[in-house]
Amino acid sequence: EKWSTEITNVRIYGRPIRFSHRIHPDFTQDTKTWCFACGKSVVKVTNPKPTCGICGNENVVDYCHVEEFQHSNTWPVVYLLDPHPRKPNYMIWVQIDPNDDWWLLADRQIEGDCVETRDSVFKMEKEMGLYVAQRLMDPNMGASPSGQKREVTWQDEFRSAGLNCDLASDVDVGRSSINQYFKPDKDTLRPRIKIHPRCKDTIYQLTRYSWADFSKNVDRGMKQVPKDKYDDGPTLLKY
Which of 46, 90, 101, 160 could bridge across to 82 with cysteines, CB 3.0–4.6 Å? Predict the structure, then answer.
């Protein structure tokens, strides 16, 4: 009852200590239990009804963010792109349902130039029958020069290739919004974000995306700055 969420994750669920500073700690690809009274993930006790192991409340629900689902051909989809000059372009497709819940349909890393990326994107969207209502691009890379001509940006290059993307907003409130969506809703009893198992790269990154620490020789707390590692998919989801 006195264990913190971090200790519970390590001692009960066997999660590595080095991932205890995760930016999205409530995300899980394994079934866990949420207590609405405590407002957090807890260890469930069956005695004889399922109850919270901390407060004893029966208002608990099992939840998981990764599951198989069928997408809709009419609900709008947001395509998000993070272009890279030295590694594959990272992209995700998120469908928005009438309740404003999010369904992460697919992710993909594509090597090649803007035209090759465009062809691959359009082919997949046609095969899946997606209605793409908006395309967004990482504003930091999108507004940066794509080559020797500083006036030509990555956004310009992809626009010329026929993949027209708006620059996303880079405000930090996006991360806190995601954390709220990862929590089960009191009315629907499920999280407001669901991720298809085919999105292996994004799932892998969400379980490892964490805050940067100060040096062990410095007696200070965590930095409120994310590590660059494992940030591609989670950052696109923030946009």
Answer: 90
Dist. CA 26–CA 174, nearest whole Å: 15
Q: How far apart are CA 60 and CA 206, in angstroms?
A: 24
Reduced to 3 states (helix: H, G, I; strand: E, B; else coil), residue 237 is helix
pLDDT of the residue at 118: 96
**Residue 27: Cβ within 10 Å count:** 22
Whether residue 184 contacts residue 61, with contact meaning beta carbons closer than 8 Å, is answered with: yes
Structure tokens of 236?
């696109």
pLDDT tens figures, 34-55? 999 999 988 888 878 899 988 8
In the block, tokens 């590694």 appear at 87
DSSP string, 108-140: EEE-S-HHHHHHHHHHHHHHHT-EEEEEEE-HH
> Sign of dihedral through CA atoms 181, 186, 188, 190?
positive
Q: What is residue 88's three-state secondary structure?
A: coil
The secondary structure of the chain in percent helix, strand, coil, rounded to multiples of 5, reads: 25, 25, 50
In degrees, rounded to 5, the angle at the alpha carbon of residue 27 between the alpha carbons of residues 10 and 14 is: 20
Q: What is the pLDDT of residue 19?
A: 57
- Could you tell me the two tokens for 63? 């939840």
What secondary structure letter does DSSP report for 48?
S
Most distant CA pair in the chain, distance: 69
Between 114-128 and 154-161, two packed helices, what is the crossing angle to 10 degrees? Answer: 60
**Strand pairing class (193-195; 102-110):** parallel
Copy the structure tokens of residue 163. Answer: 């993949």
